[in-house]
Automatic annotation (TrEMBL):
Chain positions with 4-aspartylphosphate modification: D245
Annotated keywords: DNA-binding, Phosphoprotein
Pfam annotation, one family: Response_reg
Protein name: Response regulators consisting of a CheY-like receiver domain and a winged-helix DNA-binding domain protein
GO biological process: phosphorelay signal transduction system
Domain Response regulatory: 196-312
SUPFAM superfamilies: CheY-like, TPR-like
Gene Ontology molecular-function annotations: DNA binding
Length: 504
C-alpha cells in the first residue's frame, strides 16, 4: 500500500469515527426527549431509524412496535400500519407472526381487503409450517368478513390450514394404486436452490409449458429460442442442466450439444434431448454421443417435472444453510453472510417470485429478481417477509455490479422502503380511479426536473400504462411500491393536476 492509500485510509477511518459519534449523539438526544415525553411519535420514529442505522436492529424493532401501539391508541390507523411495517422488516420468529396479526386487522379496518388477505396467508402458512394446523384453522374461522371476495379468500385459507386425508384402506388392506393424497407441503428434497436449468426450443408454447412445470422445483429457469442464443446463455449463467430440442433452425440441438462439450468448463453438464423423432437408431446415436437422456414428444409436463427432479437430486449442491423468511429476515441473512465472509449463491423464493444474490467474501456482487438486477433487485426484496431461502457455497466469478457494502445497501433499501411508505400514506383519494389529463404532455418536463442528480430515473411510460382509467390510485401505487422514483413522480403529477380523478 502506497503513501496515498495510507492517507486515504486514515481519512476514511476518521470520517467513520466522526459519523458514528454524530449518530450516537443524535440517539442520546432522542432518548432524552422521550424521557420527558415517552409518547412523542415523531421522536420515536426518528429514534428507530437511528438505531437501525447504528446496527441496533432489536432496539429499532422495539421502538417501531412502540410507535405502532401509540398510533393505535390515538386511532391513527395509517400511522400504525406504517410503524408496524417498519418493525416487521426487522422482526423474526413469533414477533413477526404477532405483527402480521396486527397488520391483518389494521388492513381490514382500512377496508384494504386484498392486503388483509395477503397477511392472512402469511399467518396461516407460517402456522402450518410449524405444525400448528389447529391454530391456523381457528384463525381462519375467527376471521372477519373480507368483503366481496370473502368466500374465495376463505376457501384458499381453509385449504392451506386443512389436513388432506390419505387415500388408504383399512390397516393391511391393499388399495391397488400408486396415487396417494399428499399434504401439499413441499419437502426439502424437492427444492433445488443454486441449480440452473437451461431450456432451449424454438416453439414458444413448449418453452412456456416446460418453464411453468419446472419453476416449482426452486431452480433458476433460463430459456433460449435457438442454439446460438443458448450458447450465450451457457456462458452467462453456467447451467447445471440443459434441456434442448433437436430440430431448430440455424444451430440444431446436436450442434449445440457439440459446442457445449467443446467448452471445458461446461463439458460435464448433463444434456437432455427433446425430439419428435422416436426411432431406436436416433436414440442410440444420441446416447453414444454422451446425451444424458432422450425424451420423445409429445410428453406430459408432470412426468417431465419428476424426471428433472430426480436428475437434480443427483446434481444437488450441498446447502450450507436454509430456512424461512418468517423466522430469519433478509437483513439477518445478509449480515450472517457478510460477517462470515462467505462466497456463493443465496436463493430466495417467495410465492411465484425467485431471487438470486451472488456473494464473494461477504460482499454482494449482484442480485437478480425477475427483470430487476443490481441494487433495484435488493430494494425489491426488502419487502419480502415470507418464503424460503438457501445458501450454497460455490466459486463466484461474476462481475461486481453492486458497489455498496452490504450494510450500506441494506440501509439504502430501508430508507427507500420508508420513503415509499410515506409517499403512499400521503396520496389523496386512493380509492378513486385516476387518469392522465389532456395536459399530460408536460409530464416529461416534470420527470426531468425530478431526475436531476438522482441515480435512478422514474418510468413515465409505466405511469401512462397504469393510469389508463381501469385501476384505482391505490392499485397503481401498489404496483409501484418498489419503484420510489416513479412513486415520487406520481405524487408530483397529482400535485400539478396532470393526474386527476376520473370523476372530476
Amino acid at each position: 500500500m502506497g503513501l496515498f492509500d495510507h492517507v486515504r485510509s486514515a481519512r476514511e477511518q476518521v470520517s467513520n469515527i466522526q459519523d458514528t459519534s454524530a449518530l450516537v449523539a443524535s440517539i442520546e438526544q432522542c432518548e432524552r426527549i422521550l424521557q420527558a415525553d415517552p409518547k412523542h411519535l415523531p421522536t420515536l420514529l426518528e429514534l428507530g431509524r437511528l438505531y437501525q442505522e447504528h446496527g441496533q436492529t432489536q432496539k429499532a424493532c422495539d421502538v417501531f412496535c412502540r410507535a405502532g401501539e401509540i398510533a393505535v391508541e390515538r386511532n391513527d390507523t395509517e400511522q400504525a400500519l406504517v410503524s408496524y411495517r417498519k418493525a416487521e422488516r426487522l422482526a423474526a420468529g413469533d414477533l413477526r407472526v404477532e405483527l402480521w396479526h396486527k397488520l391483518f386487522y389494521l388492513s381490514y379496518k382500512l377496508r384494504r381487503m386484498e392486503e388483509a388477505f395477503e397477511r392472512a396467508k402469511q399467518i396461516v402458512e407460517t402456522l402450518v409450517e410449524r405444525g400448528n394446523t389447529k391454530r391456523a384453522a381457528n384463525f381462519v374461522s375467527a376471521m372477519p368478513d373480507l368483503g366481496a371476495k370473502d368466500a374465495e379468500y376463505r376457501q384458499i385459507l381453509e385449504a392451506m390450514a386443512g389436513v388432506v386425508p390419505r387415500q388408504t384402506g383399512a390397516t393391511g388392506t391393499a388399495v391397488g394404486t400408486w396415487r396417494r393424497a399428499t399434504s401439499g407441503q413441499r419437502s426439502a428434497d424437492e427444492y433445488f436452490p443454486g441449480q440452473t436449468i437451461l431450456i432451449v426450443d424454438d416453439e414458444p408454447e413448449l418453452l412456456e409449458i416446460l418453464e411453468s412445470s419446472l419453476r416449482t422445483l426452486g431452480a433458476r429457469i433460463i430459456t433460449a429460442a435457438n442454439g446460438h442464443i443458448a450458447c450465450e446463455k451457457v456462458k452467462k449463467y453456467a447451467p447445471s442442466l440443459i434441456i434442448s430440442d433437436l430440430a431448430m433452425p440455424g444451430m440444431d440441438g446436436s450442434q449445440f450439444f457439440e459446442w457445449v462439450k467443446s467448452q471445458p468448463e461446461h463439458a460435464r453438464v448433463p444434456f437432455i434431448c427433446l425430439s419428435s423423432i422416436g426411432s431406436e437408431a436416433e436414440r442410440v446415436a444420441a446416447f453414444e454421443m454422451g446425451v444424458e437422456d432422450y425424451w420423445t414428444k409429445p410428453f406430459h409436463p408432470t412426468e417431465i417435472r419428476y424426471r428433472v427432479k430426480h436428475l437434480l437430486r443427483r446434481l444437488r449442491r450441498p446447502v450450507d444453510f436454509q430456512g424461512k423468511l418468517s423466522q430469519v429476515n433478509l437483513a439477518e441473512i445478509i449480515q450472517i453472510l457478510e460477517s462470515g465472509r462467505r462466497t456463493g449463491l443465496l436463493t430466495i423464493e417467495s410465492g411465484a417470485e425467485q431471487a438470486y444474490l451472488y456473494f464473494r467474501d461477504g460482499f454482494i456482487l449482484n442480485a437478480e429478481c425477475g427483470n430487476l438486477a443490481g441494487e433495484r433487485a435488493v430494494f425489491h426484496l426488502v419487502g419480502w417477509t415470507s418464503g424460503d431461502f438457501a445458501f450454497c457455497t460455490m466459486p463466484m466469478m461474476r462481475e461486481k455490479v453492486i458497489q455498496l457494502s452490504p450494510q450500506q445497501l441494506l440501509m439504502e433499501a430501508f430508507r427507500r422502503f420508508d420513503e415509499a411508505e410515506r409517499v403512499l400514506s400521503s396520496l389523496p383519494n386512493q380509492h378513486e380511479v385516476f387518469v392522465c389529463r389532456p395536459g399530460f404532455e408536460k409530464a416529461p418536463e416534470v420527470a426531468e426536473q425530478l431526475a436531476q442528480g438522482g441515480e435512478f430515473v422514474a418510468n413515465l411510460e409505466t405511469i401512462r400504462q397504469l393510469f389508463d382509467g381501469t385501476r384505482t390510485l391505490e392499485a397503481c401505487c401498489q404496483v409501484l411500491r418498489d419503484d420510489l422514483e416513479t412513486l415520487l413522480l406520481v405524487r408530483e403529477l397529482i400535485d400539478r393536476k396532470l393526474l386527476v380523478p376520473r370523476s372530476g
